[in-house]
Amino acid sequence: MSATQSFQGIGASPGVAVGRAFVLDNRRVRTPKVKLQETEVEAEGLRFKTSVELSSRQLEDLKEKLKRDADADPGNTQDHSLILDAHKLMLQDPMFIVEVNRLIREEAINAEWAVRRVARRIKHQFDNLEDEYFRERRADVDFVADRVVRNLLGHAMDEEVELPQDSVVVAHDVSPADAAMLVRAGKVAAFVTDMGGQTSHTAIVARAREVPAVVGAGKISESIRTGDLVAVDGNQGLVLVNPSDSQLALFRETMRRHLASEQSALKTAELRAVSLDGHQIHLNGNMEFPEEIPSLLAHGAEGIGLYRTEFLFLNRAEAPTEEEHYKAYREVLEAMGGRPVTIRTLDLGGDKVPGKKPDKEANPAMGLRAIRYCLHHREMFRVQLRAMLRASQHGNLRVMFPLISGPSELREARSELEHCRSELGRAGVPVGRRFPVGIMVETPSAAMIADRLAQEADFFSIGTNDLIQYSLAIDRQNRDVAYLYRPLHLAVLRSLQNIVRAAKNAGIPVAMCGEMAGDPTYTLVLLALGFEELSMTAGQIAAVKGIVRRTSRTEAQALLERAMEFSTAEEIERFVRTEMEKRFSGSE
User: How sure is the predictor about 553, in pLDDT bands with cuts at 50, 70 and 90?
Assistant: First the structure.
């Protein structure tokens, strides 16, 4: 047996799996570089046009194939159509088409070389984005360019792969098309990739299908051969190749415990998160794609606490139409069957919105983004609002505005919503009843004047990711200062207290939808603070629910009071973690 190799990557989808490696040979093909004769330029342009048209047809065929599978098997809830549509739109992007043709014509180079150069240029636009989700979209540019180049070279695309049962799929990266094809048969035990992060398509697909995944593991695909025994821990981001008998036994025991925990979670899905002294917290799900809904419901999500709409705007030449918005929102509202769905309006900056000339900003994270961008581009904002109003008749809708810093922005945004309601009414377009309109509390200014905002918002939802980094003046993507990102910093706790108190005094619900909400370490703190709703990923619901159901709010408040007697974030965190281990270690 070969010596055991250990690799550390990013745990992108929780769970543990052991299986035989199936290495996908999907590395980028070598791109020929050819200088053309003047007489060859026109034909090369036609060759490029033919390849783009073929690529578009392939994506449409794949989309239809997946749709037929879903129709034939109602249990197959995967729907990659939005991602595949986004890739088709990228093929039509003028920035892509015009630039490739320009290089072919002006520099007399072959189409393959021109495609790679333009793709590299487009990818650079993503490099400095703060949000990991949008940085990950660089991979989509590569996937689209690679498809065009492979078609130019006459390589086969989207071939059916016959996977052995319980295969650990190992690849440099997995495109949405490959992921869609691979998960159809239900034989994938885990994914392992060189590239990617928490928001890469591999991670999203794996979480939706509850398949363990480790991504961003360096050059792991070069070290594994098809048939190698591979153990994957999607919680810790650990991959062992040809593990020893003792390591394998440990992994199998972890698998057994994870499966027991998952079965226990599914058994408690219908139970409510009610503390021993009767305080209930509603546990909702965060989502981006419709295929995440079945898993959220199976794990007991009572609603959608955060529906991110940004994916509708990605990888396309023009902003989505009102009809595209409407169809996406209607699908989610109907799938949730009357449960509340909180849709957040666009939370992007001008450097990411398609169809708009990007504005160069020194600090886009604090620049023209989210509600500020929407109020500067009213018609685009109204397109989204009209679609939400139309979709509201199909379910239990709540709308939420991001990055509100004061009452003026909230009033302007609500005014736009009412303008759209009147506009649709005059046109005779049906809309649903009035729905709650709330705000994301994620700026220090909003936290400071939460009492005033609570008089004008129907609910609060705290976005802790931004609130913490803005409050502590740190960029958590910056490795040099990321250690300062402390959810239990005393300033953060006092800020949360102020926000919850303001909401309670005004009689409006207060929720949390940031990462802090789904971390069981902080559950007692949030119970003590008085949160009524927490929103998280499917896999986090059971653990948070279990903690709430095994304690009282009175106990939690005593813990928080003692914690806030400390001064440093390190002291508070150490105390809270120690108390949580004492109370809940070893419990399922």
Answer: very high
551 and 438 both lie in a single domain = yes
| Catalytic residue status for 201 | yes
CA distance 261 to 248: 20
Q: pLDDT per residue over 178-208, tens digit each?
A: 776 676 667 889 999 988 876 676 777 777 6
CATH of the domain at 224: 3.50.30.10
Nearest residue to 575 via CA among 584, 583, 566: 566
Where in the sequence is the domain holding 48, given as residue range(s)? 38-153
DSSP state of 283: E
Residue 223 tokens read as: 């070290």
Last residue of one domain, picked from the residues 153, 183, 205: 153
Is residue 253 assigned to a domain? Answer: no
State residue 155's pLDDT score. Answer: 80
Asked whether residue 255 is domain-assigned, the answer is no
Catalytic residue, candidates 80, 325, 374, 513: 513
Which of the residues 172, 201, 282, 325 is marked catalytic? 201
Task: Work out the mean pLDDT of the chain and round it to a whole number.
Answer: 86
Which of these three, 153, 188, 207, is where a domain ends?
153
Residue type at position 346: L
* Cα Rg, the chain, nearest whole Å: 25
Residues near 415 by beta carbon (within 8 Å), at least 6 away in sequence: none
For tokens 């803005």, the residue is: 470
Q: Is 513 a catalytic residue?
A: yes
